[in-house]
Fold this sequence. Notes:
The chain is α+β, with helices and mostly antiparallel strands. The protein is built from 7 helices and 5 strands; from the N terminus they run H-H-H-H-E-E-E-H-E-E-H-H. It has helices at residues 34-39, 41-46, 49-52, 58-61, 100-121, 158-162, 172-182, and strands spanning 63-66, 70-74, 84-88, 125-129, 146-151. Strand 1 (63-66) and strand 2 form a beta hairpin. It starts with 33 loop residues before the first helix and ends with a helix.
Amino acid sequence: MTDATTDDIPGLVAESDLPGVPDGFQRLWTPHRMAYIQAGADAMRAACPFCAAPHKSDEDGLIVHRGRTAFVLLNLFPYNSGHLLVCPYRHVATYDEATAEEVEEIGILTQHAMRVLRDVSRCDGFNIGMNQGRVAGAGVDEHLHQHVVPRWETDANFFPIIARTKALPQLLGDVRRAVADAW
């Protein structure tokens, strides 16, 4: 007896033609990104998200703290849960364009963000940095922002390396609330 194929049995559909059949790709559902897709690339370039955020409620803008010349908000596309951004209110592209007052407050807010994240998330360390200019990897290259990324000894697993996917165990709203409350 030989094995039958889909060609041998009338009306039988190949498994690969069925909906929901694994195709070798992993799915990470990110419905929050639809706002960017629907707005289109030109609209996103025209509207700076760091200029828009302070005009929203803290919840809608993902803001955890508002300072005098700078503010702190969650990264909408975080590397890890609790990934914060420290931004001046003023629309400047690079660190050397910031005023001494802005630089001082960005530094103070960064230090405080580290203390809050350590308390709230019990992280073991941090990645802190600025990507200035598109060629340097800045997603929003026209508005200065500093990343504060909490890290845990156990957060470096195979998932991002093998599957090119980051697992984020907490929702942005829950993280924003916890960090803002602890601020």
